[in-house]
Amino acid sequence: MHILLITPTPSYHTEKFLRALLDANYKVTLVTKHKPKLLDNEKYRYIRYPMSFGLRHLKLRLLKQLGNLICALQLRIIWQIVKPDLVHVHYIEDRALHCTWAGLHPLLFTCWGSDINSVFNTGSKNGIEWQNLAYALRSADHITADSYAMLERCKAVAGQKIPGSLFFFGIDTKRFKPGYENEAQAWRQELGIGLGTKVLVSVRSLRRYMGHHHVIESIANIVNDSQMPNIALLLSGFGIADSYQQELRALVNELHLANNIYWLQEIPNERMPILYSMADVIVNYAEVDAFPVTFFETAACKRPLITSMLPDYADIFGPESFLFVPPANVPALEKSIRLSLTESPDAQMQRIDNAFAIVERVGEWHQCFSSMQRIYTQLTNPQYNMEKPVFT
Predict the structure, then answer these.
(1) 225 backbone dihedrals φ, ψ, rounded to 5°
(2) For the chain, percent helix, then strand, then coil, each to nearest 5?
(3) Residue 382's pLDDT band (cuts 50, 70, 90)
(4) Sheet holding 2-6: strands in order across?
(5) What is the pLDDT of residue 391?
(6) Burial bucket for residue 371 (CB in 10 Å: 0-12, 13-18, 19+)
(7) DSSP secondary structure string, 58-79?
(8) Residues 307, 325 contacting (CB under 8 angstroms)
(9) 18 beta partners
(10) Which of 67, 185, 314, 318 has the greatest number of CB atoms lying within 10 Å of its CB?
């Protein structure tokens, strides 16, 4: 089967997906802005994503749409030359619209979360972003997302029922697993974290909607409580000079937490299992989100997790696996951190074991990719467009 794969700028997830396709013996033509670093493969071809000559980035609506049309016409030519069996678009935004205008089919969209949330939570139904997204969604033959809540948002934007199913970017459970104690201890020593200090990791990217400011505020009282252990809070991804990260530093200074906060540079994926091993508690306190792969990684590494309670988190893990806290509620988050640091090992291990059983059942990458292969098979069935099933 020949897949025309259209992705945003190459990232860990897109390259992992591309490698999985090639390992499964698919022929792949990748269309994206920048060429990823891959070994040569006779079944792989790269084509640079069409250019709009700057028109798509202009504010004037007519010129923006003209830029989109230029990209769509170029994609149509690529599609006619390549002759794929299926077109798969990761991250639903302008690229999805271009494929729709180009008349490409069978057409599969995979939501990443922020693509839909950025329009659904902030956009106006009369705005060009909402209308373009709605048009693209209505034209898809199938959509995948990592939560039923996200599929419902797609339905709301499109204004109609859309064939869709769940798909998770699973993890390599041979790499994300308990262990790595020596590497974790060496990292602690490198950072200067004492042996008796409890390590909290606020693991998500440093964006405001990920709630790191709430996490910082939540430990302010704990560090001054003589009944609590010493705390080190690790924030990864620091180093980009933007206003939010400057705000976080100012907050740390205001709360006199400089000795408790450790700023880490962006961590490559291959070192993430060591970071989890070093942590006594993982904190995921987003205000808006899709289903994060962080859940699978934490569960596979058998670490306790505190997380905000969001609609997109409800499908897989529950309170029997993680400590759930209402979002943007600093007192409630502080209470959960105190509980996690002081509760009995048996109570904590019960949740950890429950979460580990779930990731073994649904979070392993090859299992997740197999579900996408089944969707490919259905979409390339000549009867599919007539039946339009809604997958569950």
Answers:
(1) -95, 115
(2) 45, 15, 40
(3) confident
(4) 44-48, 27-32, 2-6, 86-90, 107-110, 142-145, 164-166
(5) 40
(6) middle
(7) SSSHHHHHHHHHHHHHHHHHHH
(8) yes
(9) none
(10) 67
| Span of 242-246, 258-262, 354-358 with lowest mean pLDDT | 242-246
Would you say the pTM of this structure is higher than 0.85?
Answer: yes
Across 209-232, b (16+ Cβ under 10 Å) vs e yields: bbbbbbbbbbbbebbeeeebeebb
Reported as a pLDDT band with limits 50, 70 and 90, residue 386 is very low
Tokens for 5, please give them. 């794969």
Distances (CA, A) of 150 to 79, 113, 146, 156, 189: 29, 7, 7, 10, 42
Residue 358 Cα distances to 148, 263, 347, angstroms = 18, 31, 17
User: What does each C-alpha distance from 136 to 7, 34, 121, 124 come to in angstroms?
Assistant: 15, 23, 18, 16
DSSP reduced 3-state for 118? helix
Q: Do domains 2-170+365-387 and 181-362 have the same CATH topology?
A: yes
Rounded distance between C-alpha atoms, residue 177 and residue 301, angstroms: 4
Q: Where are the domains of the chain?
A: 2-170+365-387, 181-362
Q: Classify domain 2-170+365-387 at the CATH topology level.
A: Rossmann fold (3.40.50)
Q: Which alpha helices (H) appear in the chain, and where do they start and end? A: 12-23, 61-82, 94-101, 114-120, 128-139, 148-158, 181-191, 212-218, 243-254, 272-278, 293-300, 330-342, 345-362, 365-379, 384-387
What is the model's pLDDT at position 126? 79
List, for residues 352-366, the tens digit of each pLDDT value.
999 999 999 999 999
* Strands of the sheet with 261-263, listed across from one edge: 261-263, 231-235, 198-202, 281-284, 305-308, 323-325
Helices (H), 41-194: 61-82, 94-101, 114-120, 128-139, 148-158, 181-191
CATH of 181-362, one of 3.40.50.2000, 3.40.50.300, 3.40.190.10, 3.40.718.10: 3.40.50.2000
Q: What is the pLDDT of residues 210-237, one digit of tens each?
A: 999 999 999 999 999 999 999 999 998 6
